[in-house]
Design goal:
With 325 residues, the chain is an alpha/beta fold. Helices cover 32% and strands 28% of the residues. It has 10 helices and 16 strands. The strands form 4 sheets. A 6-stranded mixed beta sheet has the order 6-7-8-3-9-10, with helices on both faces. The chain has a 4-stranded antiparallel beta sheet with strand order 2-1-4-5, with helices on one face. A 4-stranded antiparallel beta sheet has the order 12-13-11-14, covered by helices on one side. A hairpin with a 2-residue loop joins strand 1 and strand 2. Helix 3 runs parallel beside helix 5 and helix 4 runs antiparallel to helix 5.
């Protein structure tokens, strides 16, 4: 299968901070490939290297068969990039922004309108409105239209759904799905774990390291052990109590419940008795299917638990800001 991106041992450092650590992966032609991870995990730095806006300190990055350093001029003609922050001209209208980007890439809106028609149709009624006056969802659609107007072989989307409402997020992913018929390869980053299932493959990234790369369902099925969902009155009090219980391996807050793993994978009456001594009422515990978030947390905490086992006393930050001990 043809490789659109081939990364081998890519590293990037900013002073004392290692933003990317030996990053190796590949992306196939026409694939939708997702990078899933929290803020500060290295997603934007990696995307800037892929789009030739930043140089790697070490390693090799090939995009569309070209080296991202020596082939940057040719690559910029073939890549569509939508950065995380809205970066179009706020004082130009929707129509003016689109025409400007088409001109920059030596094409016209008419020439490639079939590619953006499904997307642009949502904002065409506002084509005379200045971009700075658009809603978040409208800005998102305009930015995507501008990134596609030159019919790129590779579309790079850096957290495109951050800060927009749930309906706009849904619409956006439907638009990306329709782009597959044009054989455009898409790489997209997001902090939203639920968006991972919309990708053909995903890479889980944290602290500049790729933890795992696979199909979303295979990542979910790789969760080891059993997962329990715990509900009770006062979820924060419940979380604190569960972390005190000596049979607990991990406990994380997920919406209105706690996701719990136990050291021996066995649920018995002792946990109910313990929680009652902590004045927890209305306890409900059931076995649950693990999601990608659970697998991500499991991969994150493993180095911390290994270090603790070796007597180093390390801790790690969980995806949702909680601490793994």
């Amino acid at each position: 299968m043809q490789k659109v991106i081939e990364s081998s041992g890519v590293c990037k450092r900013f002073g004392d901070i290692e933003a990317l650590k030996n990053i190796s992966f590949s992306v196939n032609k026409s694939e939708t490939f997702g990078f899933i991870g929290p803020d500060g995990s290295g997603k934007t730095t990696l995307f800037r290297i892929i789009t030739t806006l930043m140089l790697p300190d070490q390693g090799e990055m090939k995009v569309l068969g070209l080296d991202c350093i020596t082939g940057f001029r040719e690559l910029r003609k073939k890549i569509g990039y939508m950065p995380g922050r809205f970066s179009l001209y706020q004082d130009l209208t929707v129509e003016e922004n689109l025409n400007f980007y088409a001109t920059v890439f030596g094409t016209t809106v008419k020439q490639n309108y079939d590619l953006i028609s499904d997307i642009f149709s949502h904002i065409e009624p506002f084509r005379k409105r200045v971009a700075g006056k658009l809603s978040g969802g409208m800005k998102q659609k305009l930015a995507l239209s501008c990134a596609l107007i030159h019919k790129p072989a590779l579309l790079v989307l850096d957290e495109p759904t951050t800060g927009v409402d749930a309906v706009s997020r849904q619409e956006f992913w439907e638009m990306l799905r329709k782009l597959k018929q044009h054989e455009i390869t898409i790489i997209v980053s997001t902090p939203y774990m639920d968006e991972a299932i919309r990708c053909d493959r995903v890479a889980l990234i944290q602290n500049g390291n790729i933890l795992l790369t696979d199909q979303p369902q295979k990542i979910r099925s790789g969760f080891t052990g059993k997962l329990f969902r715990v509900r009770a009155a006062g979820k924060y009090k419940l979380l604190k109590a569960l972390r005190k219980y000596n049979g607990t391996n991990t406990a994380y807050l997920f919406g209105d419940s706690i996701h719990l793993t136990l050291k021996n994978d066995r649920l018995d009456e002792s946990i109910y008795d313990f929680l009652k001594t902590e004045n927890i009422e209305g306890i409900e515990i059931s076995e649950s299917e693990a999601g990608i978030e659970d697998r991500f947390l499991e991969l994150m905490e493993k180095p911390a638990l290994d270090a603790a086992f070796e007597g180093k006393g390390s801790t790690a930050q969980g995806y949702n800001g909680t601490q793994v001990i």
